[in-house]
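Illustration 12: DUF1998 domain-containing protein.
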Amino acid sequence: MTRNQSVSNFNNQLRREQLITPFGVGAMTVLPDGMSIIMAGTDHWFGNDGGVLKSECEIDDWRLSGRLGVKHLYSPPTVKSNDGQMFVRGRLPDPKVPVLRFPTWYFCKYCSRMEKKELDFFGPLRCPNTSHLEKGMRPPVMFQVPYVVMCKSGHLDDFPWREWAHRSASITCMGVLRFAPSGNSNPQGTRVYCDSCKASRNLEFITSERNGRTYLSTALEKGEEFLCSGRRPWLGDSSDAKETCANDIRGSFRGSSNLYFSLVETSLYVPQSSSNVPEELLELLSRTYMNACKILANGDSVMASSMARQIDLQNNGGLKSYTDEEVIAAYDDIFGLNGATDFARDQSRESYLRMEYELFQSTFENDRLRIQESSTPYSETVSRYFDSIKLVPVLVETSALWGFTRYESNPSLSFEDGRKMLALNPSSSFAPDSWLPAKQTKGEGIYLQFSDALLKKWESRQSVISRVSKFTNTEFSDSFRSVQLSPRYAMIHTFSHLLIKQLVFYCGYSQASLKERLYVSDGDQSMSGLLIYTASGDSEGTLGGLVRMGKPGFLEQIIEQALREAEWCSNDPVCSESGEVQEDGDVINRLSACYACGLIPETACESFNLFLDRSLIVGELLAQDLSFFQISR
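Figure caption equivalent — predicted structure in token form:
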């Protein structure tokens, strides 16, 4: 596949950041003209034409690259304009990230004839049926069929039209197929039939299962199984793009929501420091001449010394107080050449978050992170519940796509298996050329540090312990994190949702644009922090509406209103009593929480809306001592 096989009439329908999620590698989307495409693997992202340079697209996040086991993170490729300037924001000019046309079966809306073409075919396909010419009309354009098949391992293939119509995996008849859609979304009325042998069959139950097996795999041929081909069309049509697979296949509409679940890991910028490298030197080198940094960090000592002197001249002698060895060590530190990235991969989720948590314990100031304290105090009605409140006018979030699943969400997929989905020949972990697609945006946020003394007193109450014990599902885990339910986690998580739902009325962002980041753990080194932030801006940042609502005079009113709204849900008493009416054997992962009061978009929640209970915030009618907050009535 070559670079010129990107869709010429794509017309910039997707923003650059959407090529990470939801339209990352392997995702399908339908263009306004009806063309269905699939995003190509990362092997094809960077070519030699168009002025595309990896160095121009590199993203610096030493913690995230180390955690994901790669040396580099790259944003989706872009090109240079005629004057040599990079198009780094907004819409992408041609060429774009390469895409392929899928599914590869087409049908004519006039005569129902079906034709199959190659993945890299992008011209308009016209029906070869001569009857159109005999009627004096131009051969009509054929359209892609609306069905594909997938398996639980993430493979994707064309629907087996010929096999399905003939009810056999061993086909001898190669007659012309015809596709007769029903005119609605019900497959039952859609038929495929063969002109030669008159075999035909409707598509009833192709998306269904019975007895734990898919209907498509067990009923295509009586007494025989029809299993997955292992095809990965987003990686091309070579034999290497197929894997051995024995899973059942399941039919799906090409626009179905279960056809693609992206696996994305996010990280907030944390400055990298070293005990033997001055912080001032790190800051000086981090903000100037990044390309020179990379050359210096990977060069020999002679080149390093020469480059150091050149940079010193450009910085008005700012490096004169440092030796060449210190400069080299600083660059090694900046670019993770001292094993820092390997260390990050071995960290637990709690240790990874603790680095951010400790940073929020004080103020901080640079061009990628600003943590501030308000110069005026907060009112006692709010401040008694929090040890500190920080305003974060600037933060940087990096999100990297490390894999995807189909059929069902599977966040426990291993990183190695996930990365195999993105490229035909993925590099081994920490190989010099290993990389993943990523995006980086600036945002803003509010950080709340709960009073640890009040939390410990509250979570030791017997009523609280008894309430939390009603959860039957007490753990959530995926490839990079494991959440163990505790009273403080359920309370802080619920408070986060209530605050987000109230903030959207004042800060100018939607719920889907806000995110939560919980810093919660028990034990001797307990954490009890909450960051509500947005990274929905561009590379220049956001407008400041969220930080403004975190200032004294605003935040108190918003919190008080959020607590009052939580006292009563429009679905009460059903919502408040949901934990009392569960049957034995039911999985209970939410108590007093529903879409009317406590649930937010899953893009905003870090735990898929699990472990929520309003009662831990405002209490119950007969158990007011459950509440962490005391509301004056």
